[in-house]
């Protein structure tokens, strides 16, 4: 019986491999780049376009992993504790981090030396920077608030109540609004940074438990990825849901590349790839993701997709180039 089951499983695998080989995948996988410090779970990722540095919060080691994209060299990783969200404050020359221990941290953008912090009454998940007002919006991890911190002084200046479980938050400078996924009730909140109030609530159905969030700033589009396996697209000007597309289940961080007009979704074991078109969203073949990968970032210069992972040999960065 076991031999029959093994033969059947082998046949299924061969069919899957043959099917994958018959179609051109939208991403090409490159060799791993080892991150020193041992194994450990990563969280949010971000590319700083000015310095061409790739940041990944490495919660498992309590450090910020940094890759110089110009040279391909992993730089020394500062100890920052269990951080999650990451943002760049270009005006003040800072790297900002949201900490699970309950704070927002500020590092020098060049040296990565600590320059300030503020304590908050709970763990911080994602963060976003309002670049007009210099305000950091920090999600209370699985809580019911978004805290507002002035980046230059690290002072908490406002609290915004939400329904619960804020997940990802993004700032769009053209509309001067923040967009906040709320996984507890399947919504996107629109936040006005001038008044620090919620001005609109958009339902993400058919997507549920929205996690990843990304913005097409040029065309005024917002993408929200449900953990159930659906990506939805909103018109930022009207708030209308205008398209949806299937992606693998388990979506976490997503990113939009304005050059290729692709949305990349880090899902459970896969990268979902969706093409934005003038007529809607077109799903492309999904790409197998490395072990432990659940976040990603796009390099705006090369348009490569970067992710992180951990396996029996340790932790790593890995590059995928579009094709």
Shape field: globular
Query: Could you give the distance between the termini?
Result: 43 Å
Strand content: over 45%
Q: Got a strand count?
A: 28
Radius of gyration based on Cα positions: 20 Å
What helical percentage do the residues reach?
Answer: under 10%
The SSE string, one letter per element, is HEEEEEEEEEEEEEEEEEEEEEEEEEEEE
What is the overall number of helices? 1
Question: Main sheet: which strands, in order across?
Answer: 1-28-27-26
Which class best fits the helix and strand makeup? mainly beta
Low-pLDDT residue intervals, each spanning 5 or more residues: 1-21
Biggest sheet character: 4 strands, antiparallel
Mean pLDDT: 93
Describe the oligomeric state of these chains in a short phrase: single chain
Break the fold down into its secondary structure elements and pairings.
Elements: H1 2-22, E1 27-35, E2 45-48, E3 53-58, E4 63-68, E5 73-75, E6 83-89, E7 94-99, E8 103-108, E9 114-119, E10 124-130, E11 135-140, E12 145-150, E13 155-161, E14 166-172, E15 177-182, E16 187-192, E17 197-203, E18 210-216, E19 221-226, E20 230-235, E21 241-246, E22 254-257, E23 262-266, E24 270-277, E25 280-288, E26 296-298, E27 305-311, E28 314-322
Antiparallel strand pairs: 1-28, 2-3, 3-4, 4-5, 6-7, 7-8, 8-9, 10-11, 11-12, 12-13, 14-15, 15-16, 16-17, 18-19, 19-20, 20-21, 22-23, 23-24, 24-25, 26-27, 27-28
Any overview of this molecule?
There is one protein chain. The chain has 323 residues and is mainly beta. Helix content is 7%, strand content 54%. It is built from 1 helix and 28 strands. It has one helix at residues 2-22; strands at residues 27-35, 45-48, 53-58, 63-68, 73-75, 83-89, 94-99, 103-108, 114-119, 124-130, 135-140, 145-150, 155-161, 166-172, 177-182, 187-192, 197-203, 210-216, 221-226, 230-235, 241-246, 254-257, 262-266, 270-277, 280-288, 296-298, 305-311, 314-322. The strands form 7 sheets. A 4-stranded antiparallel sheet has the order 1-28-27-26, with no helix packed on it. It has a 4-stranded antiparallel sheet with strand order 2-3-4-5, with no helix packed on it. The protein starts with a helix and ends with a strand. The model is unreliable at 1-21 (pLDDT under 50).
